[in-house]
Every structure is written in C-alpha cells, then in structure tokens.
Amino acid sequence: MESPPRYDMAMSKLSIKDVEHVARLAKLKLTSQEILKYQKQLSEVVSYVSELSEVDTSTVEPTSQTTGLTNILRSDELKASELTQEEALSGTEKTHNGYFVVPMVLEHKDS
Which pTM does this prediction carry? Predict the structure, then answer.
C-alpha cells in the first residue's frame, strides 16, 4: 500500500496524483475533467488553511464553542402518573398480557 502524500501547507497547488489519492480514499471514481476541477478547488482549500496557520493565536484561550449557549433541554424525569398502561393500550384492540401485539419481524426456521 502506497504511503499518503505529505501536504506542505504553503504549497499553492496540489498535483493530479494528490487529487487521485484523495479520490481513492473517498472511494470516488473521477473523470479526468473532475480531477482537474477538484485539483483547483482542493488547492484553494489547502491555500486557505495555510493562511489560517499564520494567524497568531497564542493569546486566544481554547474553546469548544463560541456562542455562549447552554443546553436548553430539561432533564428526563419519569412521570408514571401522566399515562397509565390502560390508557396507553386504549388505542388498539390487539393486546396480550398488557403489551401491544405487533406483526412478527423475525421468523424461526426449523433446521
């Protein structure tokens, strides 16, 4: 198995071989026209990422999110009094021993 190409972040253009390698990793079959198209697009992405690496972030504190929002969902609480088993089963006629009766999904085959 061939080793993946090493990308120099300062390079401005990926080679056709680089694009073919990425396509193989993504299990994509590209035409020669698509390879040329993606060569240009991927080169622009790599160039942009290299610009980002030049930004001084030494005084910026790491964060996992920037919006300041917190989880607005309530915690799950069991409230058994809201719906009885009888009320839950009242919408169907097919019950057995307090459970819904549903069509069989798996069948047992005799050997």
Answer: 0.44
